[in-house]
Amino acid sequence: MSSSYYYRYHVFFCVNQREAGRACCANHRSQEIRDYAKARVKSLGLDGPGGIRINTAGCMDRCEEGPVLVIYPEGTWYTYVDKEDIDEIIDKHLRHGVGVARLKMKR
What is the rounded distance in angstroms from the CA atom of residue 34 to the CA atom of residue 78? Predict the structure, then answer.
């Protein structure tokens, strides 16, 4: 990975809330899951410059596909169901650079 990146990985969680009745990530506890990921990354000492940054994002226009997050610089898109899925993404992708095929979304 190029040393020109400030963070090794930059993770954006969609936490968008759409009008009633429309599919949106917020309906899947996305803010709670994002907060969990941020706390877990910090507890593992992986946060900060040169490490991992967990951020909130508005609508990424993929709400119909379930809750979504995207990891840069690769541009890897994931969906998830629960904290166990997030743990798997953190442990495999963010810690060891190995994608989680079962949670990956098509670009």
Answer: 13
Q: How does pLDDT run across 9-45, given as a tens digit for each residue?
A: 999 999 988 887 778 888 889 999 999 999 999 999 9
**Domains, the chain, with CATH or none:** 9-103 (3.40.30.10)
Task: With CA atoms as reference, report the closest residue to 34 among 97, 64, 3, 78.
Answer: 78
Does the global pTM surpass 0.85? yes
Widest distance between CA atoms in the chain: 44
d(Cα 82, Cα 92) in Å, to the nearest integer?
A: 16
Dig out the tokens for 40 from the structure: 């877990």
